User: Which sequence fits this backbone?
């Protein structure tokens, strides 16, 4: 595995591969890698001749400087996991490489997708994400880019970005990876205490019940019955809703493209998750 810190050097290496007829897959990450990332790596490894990942904590997408500083940074562990996962190239830039002196360009997304849920709660989030992903896609000219479905709204925003800017990239969503209790894997999970894990598992149990009863539930029943049940677990709920894929508009649970979405806090740790109510993999609708 080769490690790059220079955007010019990794760009040149990938262009050499592509000129030689190789297919390249890219998985952008913020590090703190776990089994959920490994699922992305396996899918990208399966689809391509070369696999490149990035590990970069993008401060502008966080709600505060404190949140960005608190994000786990474990590069040596990340390096070893990437090596064990068959990664060919690891791009590990510093802030000056991504945001050089004089950098003054931000991608502002005005899509309806950013005016609800995560876009309302985290005011800096989508502009920060679209800007850094735009930079990374220019630096890493892979044919395919892989994202986890856990961050579903983010994936849809980035797909719109590629369409709007005519970027010739195939964005591929990969299903959520869960632990034995159904909790969606996330780099933030390592900050959960035993009570937090219990809350997160309880939330997923309720999500599974909603999925099981989706054909008979109304939107009002979801709010009146399950919002109190989730709060009773000790989960500080920010939103619970059913949306239609891929436009993210409110939907009835019986809609065959309906996705249950949720976000909030288990103690000090923010968690978000989603569950297609009638499918196992949203890629079936792509």
Assistant:
């Amino acid at each position: 595995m080769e490690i790059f810190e220079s955007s010019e050097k990794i760009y040149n290496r990938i262009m050499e591969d592509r000129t030689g007829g190789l297919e390249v897959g890219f998985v952008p990450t913020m590090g703190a890698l776990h089994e959920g990332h490994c699922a992305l790596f396996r899918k990208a490894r399966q689809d391509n001749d070369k696999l490149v990942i990035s590990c970069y904590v993008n401060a502008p997408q966080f709600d505060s400087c404190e949140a960005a500083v608190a994000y786990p940074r474990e590069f040596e562990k990340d390096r070893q996991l990437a090596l064990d996962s068959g990664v060919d190239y690891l791009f590990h830039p510093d802030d000056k490489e991504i945001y050089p002196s004089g950098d003054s360009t931000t991608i502002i997304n005005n899509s309806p997708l950013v005016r609800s849920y995560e876009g309302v709660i985290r005011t800096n989030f989508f502009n920060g994400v679209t800007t850094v992903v735009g930079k990374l896609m220019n630096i890493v000219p892979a044919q395919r880019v892989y994202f986890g479905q856990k961050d579903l709204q983010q994936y849809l925003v980035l797909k719109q970005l590629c369409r709007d800017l005519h970027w010739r990239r195939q964005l591929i969503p990969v299903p959520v990876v869960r632990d034995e209790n159904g909790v969606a894997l996330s780099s933030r999970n390592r900050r959960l205490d035993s009570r937090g894990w219990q809350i997160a598992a309880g939330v997923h149990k309720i999500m599974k019940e909603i999925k099981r009863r989706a054909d008979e539930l109304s939107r009002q029943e979801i709010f009146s019955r399950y919002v109190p049940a989730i709060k009773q677990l000790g989960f500080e709920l920010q939103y619970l809703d059913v949306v239609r894929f891929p436009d993210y508009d409110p939907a009835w649970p019986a809609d065959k493209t309906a996705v249950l979405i949720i976000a909030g806090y288990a103690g000090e740790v923010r968690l978000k998750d989603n569950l297609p109510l009638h499918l196992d993999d949203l890629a079936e609708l792509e």
